[in-house]
Amino acid sequence: MYELNRVRLFCVGPRGARYTDVTLDLSGVGQIIAGQGSLFGTTVRRPSPFSLLLLENGGGKSVLLKLLFSVVLPGRRNAVGGSAAVMEKFVLGDDAAHVVLEWMHVRTGDRVITGKTLQRRRSGSAADRLAEHWWSLRPHHGVEIETLPFTADGRRLRLEGFREALQEIDRAAPITQLTWVGAEVGAWADHLRDTGIEPDLFGIQRRMNADEGDAASAFKFKSSREFVEWLLKIVLDAEDAVSVAGNFDSYARTVGDRHAMLLERDFAAGAVAALRPVANAHERHRAARTSLERAVHDGTALLLRVRAREAAEAEATQRLRQLAKDAASTAAARESDRDRARDIVNETRRQTFVLERADAQQEHDQAKAGRDAADADLRGWALADLIERKTAAEQKSARLGEQITQAERDARPALNARDRAAGALLSKLHAEAAAARAERNRQSDLAVAYQGKAVDLDNEGRQALVEVERHRAEQKTIAKEIADSRAKVEAAVTAGLLAAGQDVAEAASEAQAAARIAAEQIRQGEKALEAAKSTASDTAKAAQQTREALSIARGRHDEANRDLQAVLDPAARLTASEFIQAALSADAVDVEMLDGSADTLAEQLHSDDVGRGRQLDLLRDAQREDQRLLDALGDGGLLPPRVEVEASLEALRSAGVGAHAGWRYLAENVAAAERGQVIEAHPQLADGVVIVDPSAMTAARQALSAARLLPTAAVAVGTGARMLTAAAEQPVSEPTGAASEQFVVEPNPALFDAEAAEIKRGELRETMEIRGSEINSSTATLTSLREVKAELAAWRRGCPAGRLDELRETLITRDQELADAAEADGIAVAAAEAAATLCERLEDELRDLRPIERAAAEQAGELNRLATAVAATEEQRKRLPEIDDAIALGERTAEELTQQRNRAQEQATEAALAAENASARAERHRAEMGDVVTSTGEHATTVPTDDIPLLRSAYQAASAAYAAVEVGHDLRAAADTADSEAARLRADVDGHDPADIARASELLRSPDGADAAGRQAAVARTKREQARCDVAISAAKEKIGVVTGELKAVTPSDNRNVWIQLPEERRPTGVEHGRQLLTAAIAEQRAGQQRYEDASAEATRLQQRAGEAGEATRAFGAVGEPLAARLDQPDTGLETGSVEPYGGTAEQARAAAAAAQERLRQTGSAERSTHQEVIRLVDVAVRLAGESKFEAMTNVARRALVGLDREQLAARAGEFATQLEQRLATLTSDLESAGRHRKLIVDRLAALVDGALKTLRTASRLSKLPSGLGEWEGKEFLRIRFAEPDPSLLTARVGEVVDELSATVTSRAGSAAAPKRDGLALLLRSIEAAVPKGFLVDILKPDAVLRDERVPIENMNEVFSGGQELTAAIVLYCTMAALRANERGQIRARHSGVLFLDNPIGKASAEYLLELQQGVAAALGVQLVYTTGLSDDRALSAFPLWVRMRNDADLRAGLKHIRVAEIVRRQLPEPFPDDDPSPNNTALGTITATRVYRRPA
After folding, report:
1. If you average pLDDT over residues 145-170, what whole number do you get?
2. What SS3 class is residue 497?
3. Which of 165, 222, 499, 1425 would staple 149 via disulfide (CB 3.0–4.6 Å)?
4. What is the pLDDT at residue 754?
């Protein structure tokens, strides 16, 4: 259980009492929790056991309680002291309001926080504008009550933001154990109960706080019974009685109809015994008639099927022969088609190879021409340098001569010549550079194109290789399948499934034929067995009829025997009874004696019953009286006063006068040593009535006079003060004369002595135990006597005079009938056994045939599967040549694609190199243009046609001429040298081939011949082209050789040049086209082969079937004649057009016909022999229904038995019997369950009643007051008295309640459905019956002197003052809470929750009242939290903690804010150990001295 530790109210409350952020701290004041605290930490204390919250009247105390209760008592209808809409006034604006309660477990110190968050909805109806959500969590270092995330970044969070913040904390620290219930009131209440906080107790507190200081209004009761019922409803768990109420409802609907159910059960049992034979006989009659009709129908159907089979076989023979002929013609045509398809394949393959060889030859020629051109280019490039030097030498010689000729010209013409030469050179260089750049771009594009083509060709080559590998894998798979097929065939040969060399398909066909023959034999055998079983069934049914007749005879015999035994067995039990023997005064009594003196015996037993009953009543009266005395003594009390004294006390209590019995007053107020003196002084008062208040004597006299009790004994009435005063004034020793004047008979010490009372209780218990055994023995004897009496009466009703002789004669007659039926049954059983023997023989034959048929079927299945596998393998084998061709073609294609890819890569490389050369050439031209010097900077308007070397030489010559206008000796020497060099070089050039000289000149004029670098690049490119052509020539030669060999292989070996003349559309135009045509031709060839094989197999199969059909036609020709003669139906009268032909062989049909004739012979007489038996049994059933004892019944079954005619009754006898059997089972079950349910309900209710009474005794025990209360110490504040029921009578009284209520429910069975019975109400009704004298509940009256004055609970509000009444209410609540905890197994925790009260100090501020409240609360473990507006120092000093609050006004905001002014704890700091260091040898926080100042008077 938990105690309230701290409370935090945030942004909640009305405008006049606003709790902005208030924390009420009740922690750290209670006891130290054992076992808590760490080694280096502080100890953990429980919260304050008694707390006082101070706030001025009108300041907001009621608001505080409403907020607290809204957390622990959810639901708007549970609002404290106001309407459901009051909570809406506590939420202002759009901010979220929070009410948070922190609880601490009293044993473990664990804390849990429960909270409620309120917020106004921004949309919704006016009645639902306030959202209320409940939640709980476990605090830890990451979240405490003071650090709850109500705000974020300085702003208040709304409800959703607050929930998300808590969920984030829970995700980060799972120890938080956040439970967000939301707006579900029921779920929150269940969560509180699971946590250990009881919302039901706060419901009672809500009633106690309905008005300020008026907690006693919740404990106003009109009588003790009302208080007891209220206490039990609060304390007991209503679920314990729910199952009892459910069982009671089930029992109550059944018990009222028990007599009717017994009569109906007798009728149902007799009707079932009579109708079941009728149903069986009718079923036999119907089966016999059906068997005859079926036999005729089956014989006719068999004849029709045989004739239809004969006609079908003849027709099938003609049809199959024609089909076999047509199939042979089709097979021949398919063979021709197959041969033509093969020639087309061969011719297509030949022509494709021819085209492929031509392509290879063309590739060879192209490669050879390319290699020759490359050789010529290499030779030309080899002469290019020589020719260039020759040309330069000639030009130099000519220019020098011209220079010499024009040497005398002036310098201007030389400058013009230089400028013109420079312009021409610049124009040529610019044009050549542009051409080189264009060539670079073109070659780059070609390189990219060639590279892309190479990639495409590479992908195609890879795909071709993948196809080749796929074909090779397929080839391996087919080869493996062929090997596996051969292995399977060899295994089949080894296993003996087929002969060596035998065709698998042929063997499978033969095996299937053998399996069909075996299956046909099985079918014929099964049909013969079916016919034999039909015969056996008929004979068995006949045997069944005789057996049933025997059973009927035996049943009649058993019935007669049962009727006789039904009389003899009870008679035997009666004759063995000691009561019967005693009544007849005989040691042994036989049945005849019992039959003759039954009436006299009944009268004697009745007299004995009456006498024994009276004796038992006397014993029970004495037992009840002793029980009353024992109940009055209780577990430790005194003997009760006289009846006259109790009546007087009851009258005085009704008048409101406090009074006690003299003996009890004496025991409680006089010391044990003085009691004898008081009794001697005032014996009339000791045995009379004592008035507590002397001033009430007049009222007492008036009350007793008005009551007119008229007692039969003198009852003295006096005051307690008189008795006590007299006892005090009585001298210790009196004279002898005085003692003799007042003689007092010594009273029973048990009236005032507890030890004597204990002795008396022991004597009473021993006497009651002995008497209880005598009562039990007498009860058992009386019960046995009444059972014998009832059994004798029942026996006489069932066996009137003369009935015994009649039953014995009937049994003799039934013995003879049973013998006759047994003889007839033996004959029928022999016939049935013979038929069964035939069935067994046929079953044995079938049993032998089935393994053979199974073996044949398995062999056929194996061979069929093998044939299928072999055929599939053969189909795959036929595809091997096609796969080989595809592999060869794929390899060639891959090789060709690889060559084409290499060529494309080489071309891409050449183009890239050419692009590089062109780029370099353009760069050289641009650089050279920078070296050319000209005075004008102009280019020639037209690009010169001369090559660059010539233009360069011209420019250089012009520059030199301009540099040396005058020609000197050096110029002439240079001219001579140039002429000699030109002549020499011209002679060297003329020594080579003119074609090579022309190619070299052509190459020099090309862009590559412009400079040395271009020439080197061209030479390298030409060499690579030469090498490529050599490789292409070799590959072409190899391909030509391969294709030529394959062409020879596919060419016809005879004188024909072609296989067949192909049509125009099927002639290949190219290699690829030829390959496509070849693939299609191969597919056509394979399809033609398959069609030919299928046609051949179909022709063979049809020929075989035609032969079988002809044989069947001849075999079925002579089967139908015997059957037609038996049925007397000529062949001309049979119509077989729509009849299904017979499915078996002729032998099987002949056997079936013989069986049909036998059936016709046997079924004729069975139908006639059953009809009479049905009529006889129906008469028996009708006589049963007409018996007089069943005339009062009006159910449907009886009306049917009486009203229906014989045929209809026989037809529906089985239906009626089944329904009555079901009803009989239901009735039996209901009667048995009624007894079980009643015992179960009574036992369970008795146990619950006993537990409830123990709870009431526990309530008194728990209310014992703690020490420190003077005379009240150890006394029971609440006392509940009642007469303890005898255990033997408790069950009987509870049973009477159950019977009474069940009778009420039964009487209302015809009205509307009754509501479900309340289990707790049923329990309270049972408690009332168990304690017929009711309950007496009284409580101690709190006063300043703590006198032992008790007041009935119903008079509490009239006799008590306001403070006394409030204190009594608090004590009663604590007792109730502790009792509830005890009932739920929590009493060991000694904590029963917390009690909130609104301003109880206003009425109960007296010190003794507060001490009583706190003492009881501490003893029973109830935490008290009071609110008050008073500042009484005496009241404050009684509380270890009080919180003073004030209500401050905020005039600007128009609000009043409640704040905590101070928290005062009445607690000294914990003492420090002696070795704790301190500066002045004194532990910090330790009180060392105190000083008191008194104000001067």
Report:
1. 91
2. coil
3. 165
4. 60
DSSP characters over 1305-1365: HHHTTTSSPPPPPPHHHHHHHHHHHHSTT-EEEEEE---TT----EEEGGGHHHHS-HHHH
Which whole-number Å values give the CA distances from 980 to 397, 402, 1266, in the listed order?
9, 16, 154
> DSSP E strands: which ranges in 172-242?
179-182
| Sign of the torsion angle spanned by Cα atoms 1397, 1399, 1401, 1402 | negative
- Cα–Cα distance for residue pair 869/488, rounded to 1 Å: 9
CA distance 394 to 989: 13
Q: Report residue 741's pLDDT band, with 50, 70 and 90 as the boundaries.
A: very low
Give the per-residue pLDDT at 633: 55
CATH topology for 2-195+1401-1411+1423-1465? N-terminal domain of mukB (3.40.1140)
DSSP, collapsed to helix, strand or coil, labels residue 636 as coil
In the chain, residues under CATH classification 3.40.1140 are 2-195+1401-1411+1423-1465
**What SS3 class is residue 718?**
strand
The per-residue pLDDT for 1385 is 53
Question: Using one digit for the tens of pLDDT, what is the confidence trace for 994-1037?
Answer: 777 777 777 777 777 677 777 777 778 878 877 888 888 888 78
Given the structure tokens 């953990």, which residue do they identify? 44
Which amino acid does the sequence have at 52? L
In this prediction, residues 904-911 reach a mean pLDDT of: 82
Place of tokens 């590739």: 363
DSSP state of 12: E
- The pair of structure tokens assigned to 715 is 């009852």
CA 757 from centre of chain: 66
Is the separation of the CB atoms in 134 and 163 below 8 Å?
Answer: no
Neighbours of 812 (CB within 10 A): 9
The tokens describing 137, both together, are 């969590």
Nearest of 1339, 1368, 1354 to residue 1281 by alpha carbon? 1339
CB contact at 8 A, 371 and 1023: no
Distance CA 699, CA 862 (A): 121
Question: How many angstroms separate the CA atoms of 1369 and 639, rounded?
Answer: 31
The confidence score (pLDDT) of residue 163 equals: 92
Radius of gyration of the chain (CA): 65
- What pLDDT shows up at residue 1312? 45
Q: Could you tell me the pTM of the whole model?
A: 0.44
CB 1129 within 8 A of CB 303: yes
Residues 1249/1287, Cβ–Cβ less than 8 Å: no
Q: How far is CA 385 from CA 391, 988, 1379, in A?
A: 10, 12, 131
| pLDDT above 50 (res 1279) | yes
Classify burial at 699, counting beta carbons within 10 Å of its beta carbon; exposed 0-12, middle 13-18, buried 19 or more: middle
The CA angle 1095-864-514, to the nearest 5 degrees, is 100
Q: What is the mean pLDDT of residues 203-212?
A: 80
CA end-to-end distance (rounded Å), the chain: 52
651 neighbors 692 (Cβ within 8 angstroms): no
- Does residue 1305 contact residue 252 with C-beta atoms inside 8 Å? yes
How would DSSP label each residue in 423-446?
Answer: HHHHHHHHHHHHHHHHHHHHHHHH
- Provide the b/e sequence for 1463-1495 (b: ≥16 CB within 10 Å): bebeeeeeeeeeeeeeeeeebeeeeeeeeeeee
Place of tokens 């529906």: 1212
Give the residues across from 1352 on adjacent strands.
1338
Helix (H/G/I), strand (E/B), else coil: 1401: helix
How confident is the model at residue 744, as a pLDDT?
39
CA distance 325 to 307: 28
Residue 1337: C-alpha distances to residues 647, 663, 1278, 1341, 1349 (Å): 17, 20, 7, 13, 13
Q: Is 299 exposed, middle or buried (0-12, 13-18, 19+ CB in 10 A)?
A: buried
CB atoms within 10 A of CB 806: 12
